[in-house]
Amino acid sequence: MNTATELRNKLRSIDHKGYPAYKDLKGQYNFGDYILSIDHVQGDPFASPSRLSVRVEKDKAGFPAQYYDTPAKRITLQDHLTRLFGRWASGGSFQAKGSGKSGLLSVSRCGQQVLERTALRVKDGDIVLRFEAGFPANGRTINARELEKMLFDILPDCVRKSLYYVKIDKERLRQAICLCEDQQYIRKSLAERKLCAFIADGSILPRESGVSEKPMKDAVAFRSPESLRVTLSLPNRGQVSGMGIPQGITLFVGGGYHGKSTILQALQNGVYNHIAGDGRELVITEASAFKLRAEDGRSVTGVDISPFIKNLPNKKDTTHFTTEDASGSTSQAANLMEALESGSSLILIDEDTSATNFMVRDDLMAQVITPGEEPITPFISRIRGMYEDLGVSSIIVAGSSGAFFHRADTIIQMKEYVPIDITKKAKDAARAYEINCPENGGNAAADPAGAKKPLGEEQADAESGQNARFPEYNQKRCPSPDMALRKEDRIKMKAMGTSELSIARENVELRYLEQLKDQEQSMALAYLLKYAQLKMMDGRKSMRQIGDLLEEQLDRSGLESLFERGDVSSQLARPRKQEIMACINRYRRLKM
In angstroms, what CA-CA distances link 324 with 236, 495, 540, 579? Predict the structure, then answer.
C-alpha cells in the first residue's frame, strides 16, 4: 500500500500534464487515521466525477457496538454518518478551482427516509465511505495543486468531523439510534397486536408541498379517535398513544380536502423509518404494504388475473395473461396478483387512482349488464376472501362510493384532518339502505334479517360469494433469461428520478410505484434487474423464489454484492422486495 507522502509526490509529478495522467493515481494510500482509495478516475473535468472511498478501522472510528448490533440500528448509524459527511463536504465543495466539475465533493443526498445505501457501510465497526470528487484542471490540463488541497486539507477535515465518534455530536447520534429502536419496537408490535399500521398522536402528516417531503408548517396534528387508540410503551420515549389500524378491511371516507389521501400517503411511506423532525417518525406501517393502483399501458407477462377477470370475449387466457398495453382494470388486477406474489400482506388503495370497473359495479349497471356478460369480478367481491383466506388486509380511501361500507370492518371519516370512527353509523346506514332501496320494494319496515340485498351485491355474490373463498390461482411464474441482454458486452444503465430507468436501451416505467422515494433506489433496481437476468433466471426458479433469493443476498451482503469486480457505485439505495419484483415485472422483454 502506498503512503500519503507518495500520493503527494505523484501529484506534483503530473502537475500541468494532460488530464489522462490522473489515472496513474488509482490505488490505496495510507493517511494514518484512514485509508484513501482512488477507485475510478474521470476521463476529463466535464465527465462524471471520480469515485473515491475512505476506510476507517473500528478501533479508530470508535463507535459503540450497541449502535450497529442490529440491521436497523446499523442502517440508522450509516444514514446519520452519511448526512454528517455530506454536510461538511458541501461546505468544502468547489473550494478547489478549475474547469467543469473541478473541486466537487459530494456524497448521497439523504431525504426524509432512512435508507440503506452504498455510500457508507459499517461492518463489524469498520467504516467504508464512498463519495465523488471532481479532479481539478485548467481546461484539460491537470491542476495538481488544487487536487492536493482537496485530498490533504479539505477531505481530511470532512472525514475527521464525521467518521470519528470522539469528534461528532454524540447526543444527536444517540437520539437517532433511540428513535430507530422505538420505530422498530412499534413495527414488531403491529403483528403481535393484530394491527397493520400505527399513527402516533401529534404526528404531522401533511407535507410542505407536492414537491417537498418536509412537514407542513402550522398543520393540524394527528389525534386518534378513542375507539382506536392504542398505547405502547416504547423503549426510549416511554408511553406513546396513537391510532392502531386493525388487520382486516379499513375504509377512510370524508369530503374532499379533509385529509383522506394525506393519511394514505403517510401510511404508504410508513414502510420506511423517518428522521427526527419529519413529523411521521412514529407513523409505522406493515413493512410489506403495497400501494395498488391502475396503470394503463403497462406490460404484463404471464400473470394469473383469473380471480378478477376471465371469460374475455376474445377468449384470451387470463390464467397466464400477457399484454403490451394493459387497460386500467387488467393492469390493476395484475398489480394486485403481483403484490401477492411478492409477499405483501397489506394493500393500500385510493379510489381516485383506481379503475372503477375493477373496484365495484353498481346496482343499475349490474341490472343492465348481467354477470354472464361481464368478465370482471370486482375487487369488492374478493376483498373478504383475500383477508380471510390469504391473510391480506386492505386500507381503502373512498370519497364517492359507499359500496365498501358493507364489507369494511373499520370505517373512519376524515373531517378537517381529524379521524372519527363512524363504523357503527356507517353500518347502520348500510343496513337501512338495504331495507329501503328500490330493489327491495322500498319497504322501510321490512325485517333487516330478511332484507333482500341490492341487486349489484346479490349478483356479485351469486358469481363469487361475499364469503366465498379466494379462488385458486397460478403461483409459479418461472421467467427465462433475456438472451439478448446476456449477449451485451457492456450493459448501460440509467435512472431518471423515480419515474423511469433504462437498461440496454430498454426503458422500464416506475412512475406508478409510489413507494419509491429516491433516485438511488431506481438505480439500484437497474442493477438488481440486470443481476436477476444474468445470474438467476433459468426458466426453473419462480418469480417468488427470485425475489426471496435477492432479498436474502441483500440482507447478507448488501448492494455491494451486485458488483463482481469490486468497483461499487457510491449512489445506490436499497429498494424493498415489492419494488424489486414490480420492476422486473415491468421489464418489457420479460419472458415466461
Answer: 51, 22, 24, 20
